Amino acid sequence: MRLSSEAKSRFEHDDLMDRGRALIEESIKFGVTHMRAFVEVDFGVEMKCLDAGLELKAEFRDKCYIQICVFAQDPIFSHDHGSRSMTDLLENAIQKHGVEVLGSTPYVEKSLELQEENMKWTIETAKLYQLHLDFHLDYHLNEHQKPMVYSAIERLHRINWTTNYEQKEFRTVVFGHCTRLTLLDGNEWHKLRQEIRDLPVSFVGLPTSDLFMMGRPDEATGGSNRVRGTLQVVEMIKKYDFNAAIGINNVGNAFTPQGTCDPMGLTSLGVGIYQAGTKADAQILLECVSTRARQAIGIYVEHNINSNLDIGSPSSFVIFGTKGSRNFRARKSIQELVYDAGFERTTIFEVCYDKKMHDPFPIPPSQWLSQAVQPFADYFHLTTLPLHIHEVLGSFLAYTFINKVVAPQVSIRLFPEKYSKFSAERKLNWDECWHMQLVLSWFFSFGFRPFVNFYGCTFILYELSSPFLNFHWFFDKLDMTGSKPQLYNGIALLFTFFCCRLVWGTYQSLRVYQDVWRSMHNQPSNSASINIDALANGTVSALDAAAGHSATPIHNDIMRFANDEFIPLWLGFTYLGSNLVLNTLNFYWFGKMIEAVRKRFQPAKEGRQKDKAIAMKSTGANGKTRISVKESEIRRRNALDDNEPIAAVS
User: Which residues, if any, are the signal sequence (predicted)?
Assistant: First the structure.
C-alpha cells in the first residue's frame, strides 16, 4: 500500500492516458472485448484516474466496452486526512457521466465495525445511484474470522436489491478475492448458496494477484511454508451452481508485478491451479473469461460458449489462429485452446449479422403496403422490395411531380418566349426528368432481386455526365451555340463521361463480372448461425464453415439476402451481356461526344468547288460523230447543324 501511494502521488494526466491506452490496446489484441476498469478515487489522486478512465472509455467505444468502476482502495471511514470526507469525494465521482460501478475494499478499514460501515454505505449508495456493485472481500485465510460475505448478502436482501434482470434497476454484485471462502466445507458452501438465493451475485477469482500477495513466507518455518488461497471457481460452478469467473485486476504494479493482460493466460494457469484437465473443465474455464465474466459485470448472455450467434444479435468474439494447421500446434478444440491459446488472434467487437437492410431513410415501410406488394415480390424473387416499396413509390411520385408540375412552371418563368414556342415533344425533352428516373429504376431493380446489390449504387455514377449532356442541348436551343458557357460545359461533359463511364465503369464491370461468376457458383447454407467450435480451427475452410458458407473463396455479402436461392444461368449471362454491350457503347458514345463538342467551336470549312466534266455526243452534217466536254459548277455546301434539315442539291 505504501509503494502504491507513493506511485499515485506522481500521477499526471498524460502519463495515465499513455499507460491506460497501451493497456487497453494490448488487451484488445489478446481478444478482450469487454472490461471492467477500476479507477481509484482518494485524497491523493482525487479525480485524476477517473478523468483519464472516462476519456479512454470514449476513445475506445467502437473497439471495446469499458465499464468504469469508481473504486475506494483506501479506507472510507478510518483514513488519516482529518475532517475531509471520503464519502463526499466518492459521491462526486460516481455522479460523473459514464460511471457504472461503485466498489470498495472493506478489509482496509481499521476495525470490523468500520468494515461493516464501509459495506453498508457502499451498498446503499450503489442502489441509490443505480450502479453495479463490486467488493473485494475476505482477503485472508484466518479460519477464526467469519467471512464478511454473509453480512454483505444479508444487507443486499434487507435493502431489496433488484433480482430481475429485465427490470430497469437491475444491477449485478461481484465479490472479488474472497480467499477466506476456500476454508469452507461442503455444508458451508451449500448454506452460502442457499442464502444468496436469486441475488445477481458472482464470485471472481483473481489468481495472479492471490498467488503473489498471499505468498509471504511464514518466518517461524524458515520461509518454506507459504500457504496461499484463491477461489476454486471450477468447483464452485460444477458442484455448487455459483456464477463465477476469473480475472486480472493488476498488471505491472506493486500488487502484481508479473503477468500480462491476456485472459487466456488465466485459463492455462487455471488448468494447474484447479487441476482442471477434462474437456468439461476446459469448457468452464473458457466461460470464466468470456460469457460468465460478462454476466458478472451485468451483460446478460448464455453461459454455454457453444451457443450459436443468431441473426440479428450483436456479437463479440475472437478468432484464434491465422495460419491454421500450418502452425506447429493446431488448436482445433476448446480444450487445446484453453491449454495454450497462442498469440494469433482476431478480435471482433459488437458485429451484428442482420437479415434486415440498414436503411438510412427515416420513415419505415407501411405494413399494409409491404403486404400488398409481397405476392409480386415473391413471384419475381424481389426479396427486399417489400422493405423499400414506400421509397420506390415515393421516388416515382416525386419525379412525376417535378416533371409535370415543377419543371414547366420554372421553364415558363425563366424562358417565357422560347418555351411557349416549343412543340409538345420539345417541351417534354425540355422538362426531361424521365431519363434519370428510368435509369434509377433499372439499376436499383437488381438490388431488389436481390442481385449484385452493391453495384446498383455503384453504376449510378454513370449518370454524372447526364446533366452536362442536357445543358449542351439547352445551350443550342437558347441560341448559345459556340459560347464560352457551352465550351466549359463541354469540357465538364467529356471529363465526367471519361472518368465515370470509361475508367470507373470499366473497372467496376470487371469487378461485377468476377462477383457474378462467384455468385453463380455459390452453395447456399442451411443455417444462418455461426458455430463457435468451428472457429477453433484457423483454416480458411473452417472459418467459412463456421459462418455457414461453403469453402469457395466468395465475398459472402454478395449473397447476403439470397437465402437458399441460386443465381440462375440466364440471369447471370443476361446481366453480363447487357453490361458488355453498354461498355462497348460507352466508348462509341465518347467518340461521338468529342465530335459533337468540337463541331460547335470549329469554323465551317468552305466547300471546295468541283468541276464536273459532262461528255456530249453529237453527229455533224458530214455524218461524223463529235464529242464535246462541258464544264458545270457544283454548288458548295456548308456544314449543317444536326437539328436542321439538309437542303436539296440543285
Answer: none
Local structure of 1: helix, strand or coil: coil
Are 292 and 244 in contact, with CB atoms under 8 Å apart? yes
Identify the band that residue 522 occupies on the pLDDT scale cut at 50, 70 and 90: low
User: How many other C-beta atoms can be found within 10 angstroms of the C-beta atom of residue 649?
Assistant: 7
pLDDT at 606 over 70: no
Helix (H, G, I), strand (E, B) or coil at 287: helix
Q: Classify residue 286 by burial, with Cβ atoms within 10 Å: 0-12, 13-18, 19+.
A: buried
pLDDT in tens, 4-46: 666 666 788 999 999 999 999 999 999 999 999 999 999 989 9
Residue 463 belongs to a domain = no
- What's the number of CA atoms in the CB half-sphere (13 Å) around residue 57? 22
Q: Record the cell numbers describing residue 531, joined without a space.
A: 458455430
The answer to whether residue 73 sits within a structural domain is yes
Q: Which of 149, 40, 156, 179 is nearest to 104 (CA)?
A: 40
What is the signed CA dihedral for 46, 47, 48, 50, rounded to 10 degrees?
A: 130
In a domain, residue 487? The reply is no
Alpha carbon distance 320, 323 (integer Å): 9
Q: What is the pLDDT of residue 274?
A: 95
For 470, residues 6+ apart whose C-beta sits below 8 A from its C-beta are 432
Please give the DSSP secondary-structure letter assigned to residue 309. B
Residue 70: φ, ψ to 5°? -75, 115
Q: Does residue 182 form part of some domain? A: yes
| 134 grid coordinates | 463490486
Q: How many CA atoms lie within 13 A of 287 on its CB side?
A: 21
- What cell was used for 389? 416499396
Give the CA distances from residue 110 to residues 106, 114, 149, in Å, rounded to whole numbers and listed in that order. 9, 7, 18
* Alpha helices, H only, 416-505: 416-421, 424-430, 434-448, 453-458, 466-477, 484-497
What is the pLDDT averaged over residues 166-170?
90
Cβ contact 520:572 at 8 Å:
yes
Pairing of the two strands 611-619 and 625-633: antiparallel
pTM for the full predicted model: 0.58
Q: Among 589, 507, 102, 36, which residue's Cα sits nearest to residue 294?
A: 36
What is the total count of domains within the chain? 1
Name residue 80's amino acid. D
CA–CA separation, 160 vs 204, rounded Å?
23
Angle of helix 149-158 relative to helix 112-128, nearest 10 degrees? 40
Long-range contacts, stretch 285-288, CB < 8 angstroms, 24+ apart: 285/234, 285/246, 285/338, 286/334, 286/337, 286/338, 288/233, 288/234, 288/237, 288/244, 288/245, 288/246
Q: Number of C-alpha atoms within 13 angstroms, CB side, residue 83? A: 0
Pick from 201, 210, 176: which is nearest to 73 by CA? Answer: 176
Given phi > 0 = left and psi -120 to 50 = alpha, else beta, which region is 641? beta
CATH code for the domain of 2 = 3.20.20.140
Contacts (Cβ under 8 Å, ≥6 apart) of 200: 161, 162, 163, 165, 170, 171, 172, 173
**Residue-wise over 178-190: b if at least 16 C-beta within 10 A, else e?**
bbbbeeeeeeebe
Per residue in 278-304, pLDDT tens?
999 999 999 999 999 999 999 875 555
Q: Which domain holds residue 155?
A: 1-215+225-309
**Helices 466-477 & 484-497, crossing angle to 10 degrees?**
160
In the block, which residue shows the cell 468504469? 68
Beta strands in 238-390 (DSSP E): 243-246, 314-320, 345-352
